Amino acid sequence: MARVFVYGTLKKGQPNYKHMINTAKGLAKFQGRGRTVEKYPLVIAGKYNIPYMLNIPGTGHHVAGEIYSVDEQMLQFLDEFEGCPDMYQRTLMRIQVVEWEGKGGMGEAWAAADGVLECFVYSTATYPPEWVGLPYYDSYDSSGKHGLSYVLRESR
User: Fold this and answer.
1) Are 53 and 33 in contact (CB under 8 A)?
2) Taking every annotated instance into account, which residue ranges of this chain make up the domain Gamma-glutamylcyclotransferase AIG2-like (predicted)?
3) Which residue, 5, 93, 112, 149, has most beta carbons within 10 Å?
4) Annotated catalytic residue within 38, 72, 80, 82
5) How many helices (DSSP H) and strands (DSSP E) are in the chain?
6) If DSSP codes are grouped into helix, strand and coil, which group holds residue 42?
7) Average pLDDT for residues 38-54, to the nearest whole number?
8) Which of 119, 121, 98, 120 is nearest to 110 (CA)?
């Protein structure tokens, strides 16, 4: 099993969460909530209002999201879904655990004394330069007050 941190449309209550609970695509078990240890710019970009975490450490906000344990089949699905490695790149990032629901209470989460886990995150280093000038968010909600609702793939 691998740990994945999701910050956009794959979170609970968001437009693509259905993929995280579709066992035909693999297994994904919600473990808890967290935020990036380093700051990153989280922007909403493109004509489909897609959330992107730009791989510019030290800029932006500590991005909030959810931590999942996923099997190899789900990891492969997510790579394909996220257009990895062209649109997004899957990299390891340090995630500060905010709330843990995983088995054994806080055991696994606090294996590191500081409550920090390494998780795979889909961020991007391949983006148009003007995206750096977009507003930065610390958390994503497709129906947020930004007014930039995500456009589902089926509707494009």
Assistant:
1) no
2) 4-110
3) 5
4) 82
5) 2, 7
6) strand
7) 97
8) 98
Average pLDDT, whole number, for the chain?
93
111 SS3 class: helix
Burial class (CB in 10 A: 0-12, 13-18, 19+), 128: exposed
For residues 116 and 153, the answer to whether their CB atoms sit within 8 Å is no
Q: What is the C-alpha separation between 92 and 37, in angstroms, rounded? A: 12
- In the numeric block, the tokens 């990299």 are attached to 91
Q: Are 2 and 59 in contact (CB under 8 A)?
A: no
CA distance 74 to 71: 5
**Cβ count within 10 A of residue 86:** 9
d(CA 47, CA 151): 8
How far is the C-alpha of 77 from the C-alpha of 106, rounded, in Å? 28
Instruction: Tell me, yes or no, if 82 is annotated catalytic.
Output: yes
CATH number of 2-137: 3.10.490.10
CA distance 133 to 122: 20
Q: pLDDT per residue over 62-107, tens digit each? A: 999 999 999 999 999 999 999 999 999 999 999 999 988 866 555 4
Cβ pair 66, 34 in contact under 8 A? yes
